[in-house]
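**Paired protein data**
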Amino acid sequence: MKHTDSISGYHAHIYFDAATVDQARNLCQKAAESFGAKMGRIHEKNVGPHPMWSCQLAATPEQFAGLLPWLSLNRNGLIIFAHPETGDELADHRDHGIWLGAGLELDLSIFE
């Protein structure tokens, strides 16, 4: 059984489309300001294993403890995929993911 001390951080990926890009940008900016999470680029294309356009928030375990509940209450219909960073990218995405909203199919082939 893995222990949480192997988690160095978390990523939360906020998914959006052309109709919700501004909503996602505002959510990510507010989350970064409120929790000190590092906001990545607003990708208006699919990147990595992600099946939709997305923006990444990188958080420490301490930041994530407050960020996740806040995202769950403020996502306003956006789908969010979050996962720990343990050094095993395949397991982090495949086995340890947390979905807010509908779960989507990730393209895990990039980790093989």
Remarks:
- Residues 21-35 form the longest helix (15 residues).
- The chain has a mean pLDDT of 95.
- Residues 27 and 74 are 8 Å apart (CA to CA).
- Strands lie at 9-16, 38-43, 53-59, 80-85, 98-100.
